[in-house]
């Protein structure tokens, strides 16, 4: 196998990963609060061929200082989470909310292998799930059934006999009961400072990294917005944030990637033909 075939093969493998990433973005174009992922390509190892320093070449100015550099393909760089805000669509539904500030997430509780783990999401389509304990209470959950946490890290639960629900800009939930009494809760909203460290958990959820393994302090990655900091929260009730995927841009990237894949596949075919011609020489 010659160098051109190795270069094309390595690049095609990375282009296939980019196609998968583009397909994942396009599949989530209608997912509430979805944040697309961007990727950049980098160069793999290369070999430097320096020109021979012949006296006549130096005198005639034909010597190239950088020589000839021949690479072995491209590699897919680290994918980055694009936190650009999506469009806000009004739904006029009391349990729908849109996070309007960049980098802010709702904190929900997800069970993994029997362990309750705090997890983050931007999906503001919330629902009420009955609690089967004979107390006529309901729990505030996501569309996947994960409990939404309050500022103390506890699931939000209240009686199912209420007139309306009001969610303020600062994330304060007021449940006005039929008896005239009100129950107040504060939604757990966090500000993520290093979004690239979040771990994708699927279903539009993000997990927090292992801070000790990374040698980072928890406050360097995210911060819970409680107390006076709740004024920095931006929530709109009766609306949902749409995906920030630009379908036109993704289609353009898809076509360019497919063309690059075809070009590299053609180079392998041509290299194979040339090797066949050489082998056929008698």
Question: Topology of this structure?
Answer:
Layout: H1 3-27, E1 37-38, E2 41-43, E3 46-49, H2 55-60, E4 68-71, E5 74-76, E6 80-81, E7 88-90, E8 97-99, E9 104-112, E10 115-121, E11 126-130, E12 137-142, E13 157-159, E14 162-167, E15 172-177, E16 182-186, E17 189-192, E18 199-202, E19 205-207, H3 211-214, H4 218-221, E20 222-224, E21 235-237, E22 239-241, H5 247-279
Antiparallel strand pairs: 1-6, 2-5, 3-4, 7-22, 8-21, 9-10, 9-17, 10-19, 11-12, 12-13, 14-15, 15-16, 17-20, 18-19
Helix pairs in contact: 1-5
Describe this structure in words.
The longest helix has 33 residues, at 247-279. Helix content is 26%, strand content 32%. It starts with a helix and ends with a helix. It is elongated, with a radius of gyration of 27 Å. The strands form eight sheets. The protein has a six-stranded antiparallel β-sheet with strand order 18-19-10-9-17-20. Strands 11-12-13 form a three-stranded antiparallel β-sheet, with no helix packed on it. A three-stranded antiparallel β-sheet has the order 14-15-16, with no helix packed on it. It has 282 residues and is α+β, with helices and mostly antiparallel strands. It contains five helices and 22 strands. The relative contact order is 0.20.
């Amino acid at each position: 196998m010659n160098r051109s075939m190795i270069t094309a093969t390595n690049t095609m493998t990375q282009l296939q990963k980019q196609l998968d990433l583009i397909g994942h973005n396009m599949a989530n174009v209608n997912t509430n609060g979805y944040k697309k992922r961007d990727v950049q390509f980098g160069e793999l190892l290369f070999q430097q061929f320096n020109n021979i320093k012949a006296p006549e070449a130096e005198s005639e100015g034909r010597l190239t200082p950088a020589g000839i550099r021949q690479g072995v393909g491209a590699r897919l760089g680290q994918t980055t989470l694009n936190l650009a805000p999506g469009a806000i669509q009004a739904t006029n539904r009391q349990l729908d909310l849109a996070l309007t500030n960049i980098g802010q997430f709702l904190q929900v509780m997800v069970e993994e292998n029997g362990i309750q783990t705090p997890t983050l999401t931007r999906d503001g389509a919330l629902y009420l799930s009955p609690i089967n304990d004979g107390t006529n209470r309901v729990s505030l959950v996501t569309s996947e059934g994960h409990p939404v946490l309050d500022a103390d890290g506890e699931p939000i639960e209240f009686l199912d006999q209420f007139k309306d629900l009001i969610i303020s800009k600062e994330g304060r939930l007021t449940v006005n009961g039929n008896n005239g009494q009100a129950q107040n809760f504060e939604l757990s909203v966090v500000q993520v400072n290093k979004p690239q460290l979040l771990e994708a958990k699927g279903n539009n959820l993000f997990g927090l990294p292992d801070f000790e393994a990374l040698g980072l302090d928890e406050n360097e990655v995210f911060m819970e917005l409680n107390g006076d900091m709740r004024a920095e929260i931006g929530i709109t009730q009766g609306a949902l944030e749409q995906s920030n995927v630009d379908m036109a841009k993704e289609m353009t990237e898809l076509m360019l990637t497919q063309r690059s894949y075809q070009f590299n596949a053609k180079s392998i075919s041509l290299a194979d033909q040339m090797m066949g011609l050489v082998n056929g020489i008698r």
